[in-house]
């Protein structure tokens, strides 16, 4: 039933958003700006609404995935799941905590419960929503696995350092435009961007912290599709300036976008605004 509802929702949501031209101006502005990885608005919107539908109606499937690496590949609720063989030792290391960087790429939200089921102490910072009762539902029901919520409201440097000191794996979506004074200059898809300075800050104060990049992709078609979890470790910051971590992340992200630009949902964001506001008509 959940899968059927997810499909119906995706079709209806796509039709409504496409008719309204939701974020179309932003997507086209970004596409014209980067030129090297041009998304198709219709396909991007179909992928986005499909993944939102799965989160709304099939999220529980990811909370029932096996804990042991040896149990993969597996089939749960009619879906196939697998771990990239090269990712297994990395995932094992992630069980001891660190920094986890990812992007608005593919069904990125679904990685949260999957990582938790694998015994990884994931912690992700979310801005609380209102009303409070809705935020309580999100934290205690949606963003919780086996009775443990992986959602926190961390805002200060002390909060972020405490998360690491407690042995957690701190998750950071690192592909958004940073509009704070301490933002770092970087490059993405051949264009200048502002980068979140938080990874640099954390590594400056906890230089031995391992840094990981994790993502999920879908291989195959229809009923034979396999959802594959990937993970890599970024080279130790002890061997270079911390800012190189952001460079490595952006290079990884560029590879994913070039593989399939219609899965990078930050094309719906004004990712290049801080450095090139004119492309958005401002």
Secondary structure tally, helices: 9
Secondary-structure element string:
HHHEEHEHEHEEEHEEEHEEH
Proportion in β-strands: 15-25%
Structural class comes to alpha/beta
Total strands = 12
Shape: globular
Q: Strand order across the biggest sheet?
A: 1-2-12-11-3-8-4-7
**The number of domains:** 1
CA-atom Rg in angstroms: 19 Å
Walkthrough of the structure:
There is one protein chain. This protein has one domain (2-280). The chain is 39% helix and 20% strand. The chain is built from nine helices and twelve strands. It has helices at residues 2-20, 24-34, 41-62, 88-94, 111-117, 132-142, 157-165, 198-205, 243-259; strands at residues 74-76, 79-83, 98-102, 122-125, 144-145, 148-149, 151-152, 169-173, 184-188, 191-195, 211-219, 226-233. An eight-stranded mixed β-sheet has the order 1-2-12-11-3-8-4-7, sandwiched between helices. A two-stranded antiparallel ribbon has the order 5-6. The chain has a two-stranded antiparallel ribbon with strand order 9-10. It is globular. The termini are far apart.
State the gist of this model.
This protein is an alpha/beta fold.
Q: What's the layout of helices and strands?
A:
Blueprint: H1 2-20, H2 24-34, H3 41-62, E1 74-76, E2 79-83, H4 88-94, E3 98-102, H5 111-117, E4 122-125, H6 132-142, E5 144-145, E6 148-149, E7 151-152, H7 157-165, E8 169-173, E9 184-188, E10 191-195, H8 198-205, E11 211-219, E12 226-233, H9 243-259
Parallel strand pairs: 2-12, 3-8, 3-11, 4-7, 4-8
Antiparallel strand pairs: 1-2, 5-6, 9-10, 11-12
Helix pairs in contact: 1-3
């Amino acid at each position: 039933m959940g899968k059927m509802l997810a499909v119906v929702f995706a079709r209806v949501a796509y039709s409504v958003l496409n008719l309204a031209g939701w974020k179309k101006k932003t997507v086209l502005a970004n596409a014209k700006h980067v030129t090297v990885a041009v998304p198709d608005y219709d396909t991007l919107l179909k992928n986005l609404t499909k993944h939102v539908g799965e989160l709304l109606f099939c999220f529980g499937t990811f909370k029932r995935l096996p804990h042991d690496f040896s149990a993969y590949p597996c089939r749960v609720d009619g879906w196939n799941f697998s771990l990239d063989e090269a990712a297994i030792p990395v995932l094992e290391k992630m069980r001891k905590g660190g920094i986890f960087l990812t992007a608005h790429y593919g069904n990125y939200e679904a990685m949260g419960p999957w990582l938790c089921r694998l015994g990884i102490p994931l912690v992700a910072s979310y801005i609380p929503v209102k009303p409070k009762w809705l935020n309580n539902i999100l934290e205690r029901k949606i963003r919780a696995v086996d009775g443990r919520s992986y959602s926190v409201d961390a805002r200060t440097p002390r909060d972020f350092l405490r998360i690491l000191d407690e042995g957690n794996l701190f998750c950071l979506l690192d592909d958004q435009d940073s509009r704070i004074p301490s933002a770092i200059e970087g490059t993405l898809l051949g264009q200048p961007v502002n980068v979140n300075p938080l990874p640099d800050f954390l590594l400056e104060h906890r230089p031995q912290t391992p840094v990981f990049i994790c993502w999920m992709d879908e291989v195959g078609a229809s009923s034979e599709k396999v959802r594959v979890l990937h993970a890599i470790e970024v080279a130790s910051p002890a061997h270079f300036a911390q800012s190189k971590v952001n460079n490595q992340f952006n290079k990884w992200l560029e590879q994913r976008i070039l593989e399939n630009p219609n899965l990078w949902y930050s094309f719906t964001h004004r990712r290049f605004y801080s450095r090139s506001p004119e492309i958005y008509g401002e």
